[in-house]
Design brief:
Length: about 600
Amino acid sequence: MFTSLLDIINLLSLLLLLGGPFFYALLWLPSSAGIESDAGLKVHRRISRVMLVAGGLYLCTLIIKLLFHYRTVEVVDLDYFPGDTVSVLRLLNLMLVPVVLYLFQNFSRLSGHSPRSWLAVCAIVILMTQAAGSHSASEGILPYLSHLVHLLAVVIWAGGTGYFAMLPWQFVIDDSTVLGDVIRKLDQRLYSLILLAFIVVVLTGTILAMVHINSNAALHGTFYGKALLFKMGLMMLLILVLSVHLLRTGRMLNNITDTVAQMHAQSVLIKYGRMIKLEAILITGVLVAAAALLGSPPPDTPPFLNPQTLSLSVGNQPVRLEMQPVAGKLDSVRMEIFLPAPLAPGDATQVYLHLSLPEAELDLDQQEALRVSADSYQGDITFPVPGLWQMELTVMGATGTILATTGLIIQEQPLADDISTYLSMHSILYNPANRISFGIGVLLVVIYGWLVWQARREQVPAWLILAGPAGILFGLYLLLSVALVTTYPTTYQTNPQPFTSAVVAQGQQAYLQTCADCHGSSGKGDGPWAISHRGRIPDLGSPHLDVHTDGEIYWWITRGIPELSMPGRDQELNEDQRWQLVNFIRSLRHGVSGS
């Protein structure tokens, strides 16, 4: 709870700290140029005070994070300190925050463009530091840059709207005949930037969600996923309010001119100010949800599901459970429960499975296993994350209800350190469906981008200013869904070896030379080494292999799977032989004989 509160304060104070200079330098000053009013001084004072409080809170959260970090380090020495990059950057921020406050406080006294330039440099460094301490930083350069750009767009959107809401509105309303034009210019500038920031926020947020959320189960079954759904719900509400603002409320400002009655101008500004404050409140809610995401670990990669056989005792009766991954689904298994005759006397017997992951406080819904034969029941289970799961088996029959519990280890993806997020042309070219999705995405981005441009020039209806970004984002999603992958480097590479009998025969020779000792001559997992050391291992001809691409299997053959004591074969087999071996493994299920 304390960590989440700390993250919320840290994020909100950061946006207020950096949003102040952005709003004043890029929005207020250009909009109020040539207007003689005391509002400029009042606005600068108000922003300075808010920035001072925000800067103090941000510094406090940084210091607390540093103290907590070093408290967990057993030995702090000169050899350790320089290597702790995030902590070094946080210490740098402790020096940069006072610089930002000083530059803004003396903004009007410093000559030339130097205040703006230095403010921009300091802001970028602070944002880089913030992104470096996030979950995305460990996922590769693309997620890190996405998080950095996401933060910058949020500063523009949330910071600009927040300070707009904190304007001295009573002063503005009292001086409406002079300041009405300033507010109209502010509205045009800010909401042009907000449209751009909206596209960037949703695009980069989608990239980060695709990096961290691996499946529908992870989205609905983890705290990170639920916080993301809450954030998305608030974003939809915010977009609705923004739509009303752009299509109606903001347009009321066009009626404020030097010739209208002051009473009417004041009425318009009062309504307008209320709308801005509502938007600021909704944005604050979105940021609170975003801060909750920062404080919880994301699911990242899906679990690695291998066939398993479990044995447990239910009412002093032996029960066997066989777990088989579901073909075509990375995170689902079919659990078959074999009950002895005393526990399954007839159709009235009911069997339920309940799984939980105590270490992550996850609790899956109870599943009923359906009877498929006289002594066996089947149920499908979806695992959102790897870990040591606790499985509770409930058997309800004529003799009463019997419970039994066992542990179930669900491994993480093999070679997890080799998995990274990147843009891949291989994935686009992998199959015709991906190429079609990519082409439609490009077409939508071009068409809706042109429509937005025409709407801004008043050549087409104004509502297209809102519909356009939605179309652009849908097109970008289609692009990302096939181009952005979190996989091994070879996952979407097409097998260069044709799937012919001759190639399969060559793959069989490589298999017998390097793999049969464990996997058996026919791939059933009954090789002599496996039997003597581990017992039977997974069948290479099982439907589960269809879940994985040729490129994934090739990567495992090349690098091995240390978690399963499987060595890499890149020293014994050349690249062609490894791809031929992949074809032989495919033939075990799909019927092309290697003989």
